[in-house]
Each structure stands twice: as C-alpha cells, then as structure tokens.
Design goal:
Number of domains: 1
CATH architecture: Clam
Shape: globular
Strand content: 35-45%
Order of helices and strands: HEEEHEEEEEEHHEEEEEEH
CATH superfamily: Lipoprotein localisation LolA/LolB/LppX
Number of helices: 5
Helix content: 10-25%
CATH class: Mainly Beta
Structural class: alpha+beta
Largest sheet: 13 strands, mixed
Length: 225
C-alpha cells in the first residue's frame, strides 16, 4: 500500500523523454547520503531566485503526465493552492483522485470506493507548498545543476520525517517549474511533467475537499510526532 501511495504522491514537474531525464551534467553533488551540499555564492543566489519564484505562485493549474516506476503513463489535470492544497484528477479509466486539503492528502479510488489518507507533511512535496518556501532552510540539498535555461536540484527532508528524494526541474531563461521526480526509499522513481500552466488564477475552494469513501488512516505514528 505505501509503495502505491508513494507513486501517487510523486505528482509534479519534471521532463522525461523516452524514460530519460532531460538534464545536463551535474555541477555539484553531496559526497555522501548524510552530507549537505556546500553551495557556492552563485548557487545560493540561484536557489534564492527559485524560492522567490515559488513564493510568487499562490495558485497554479495545468495538465500533467505521470510516468510510474513500471513505465506506465497516466494523464490528468492538476490544481495547486499554497499553502498545502493540491488536486490531481486522473483521466479515465484511471479511477484515482488525489486531493490535499492543507493537512491531509487523500487518495480516493472511485472503483474500490476507498480513500487513503496520509499527512501532507509526511511527503516530499510539502517543501513546495508550505506557506513560505525556503529550500535553503527546509530541505537538505543533495545535488544542483544550473545551466542556461535548465536548472535542476535534488532535495531531501532536512528533519528526516520523510524518506526519499525530490528532484525539481526548471526550464527557461527565468526559472519555471516543469517537472519533479520522486525517488522513494526502495529506489523506485516516478516523474510528472506539467504543461499548459496557468499561474495565480483563483481556484474553487471545493476542489480541495477530500472525497471520503472508506477511510484508511496511514502513517498514524507521524501524527504523534
């Protein structure tokens, strides 16, 4: 069950073509899994630009294509409202609807008529949708690559409350989020590419109400931390 949900929560913005990430050579990488990358002044300035860009996005919507660890492809429409609200509606015949209401992420299956819940703070995506995004403080930066019109950075939860890594991909002369890739603790990779983006168009609040069927409460121990 947790493996399936990890895949579903990998929604985001990364550009995979033919199963390979479109990215240039990495310019800097942490030496070990426990070490935080030592950033240059230029790299720190670029990440500050990314923070500013993300903090200027209060609402975001568009289309998404998700590539799962098995190569399976799903499509749909997504909505994002900071802080903490998201909606990923998959096209039929996929029966899945993923909604974050600011505290929970609910994964509803209309065929099985079930809803799984997991705290949004227990997922890698929280770093992007919290009230104030500051990747220099809220995340452990593992790897960065800044090239003309292509920026990538890989982050982990600095507090180790979530496992896995989140890679962000930005394209264009100015940083525009185009993908993210989630690598779970088992090494399984899920990517999501975004297109037809609409920035700061107010979304209907009802989009972020979780549709409950039979609720299964996941990661209960995380709530007690």
């Amino acid at each position: 069950m947790m493996k399936r949900i990890t895949v579903l929560l990998a929604l985001g913005v990364m550009v995979l073509i033919g199963g390979q990430m479109v990215a240039g050579p990495v310019s800097a990488k942490a030496k070990s899994d426990e070490e935080t990358l030592v950033l240059t002044k230029e790299e720190t300035a670029e990440i500050e630009r990314i923070n500013k860009y993300l903090n200027n996005i209060h609402n975001l919507e568009g289309d998404f294509v998700q590539i799962g660890p098995d190569g399976g492809i799903s499509e749909g429409r997504f909505y994002l409202k900071r802080p903490g609200r998201m909606r990923f509606a998959y096209k039929k015949p996929n029966p899945i609807l993923v909604v974050a209401d600011g505290f929970w992420i609910g994964i509803s299956n209309s065929q099985l008529r079930t809803t799984d819940r997991i705290p949004i703070r227990a997922t890698p995506i929280w770093s992007l949708v919290e009230k104030k995004v500051d990747l220099l403080k809220s995340a452990r930066i593992v790897e960065v690559n800044f090239e003309p019109e292509l920026w990538t950075m890989t982050i982990e939860d600095i507090k180790k409350k979530t496992n896995g890594q989140l890679t962000l991909v930005f394209q264009g002369e100015k940083p525009v989020l185009k993908q993210w890739i989630v690598k779970d603790p088992q090494g399984l990779v899920t990517t999501v590419s975004l297109s037809n983006l609409v920035v700061n168009k107010r979304a209907n609040p009802r989009l972020f109400i979780i549709k409950d069927y039979k609720v299964k409460n996941l990661n209960r121990t995380l709530m007690d931390r």
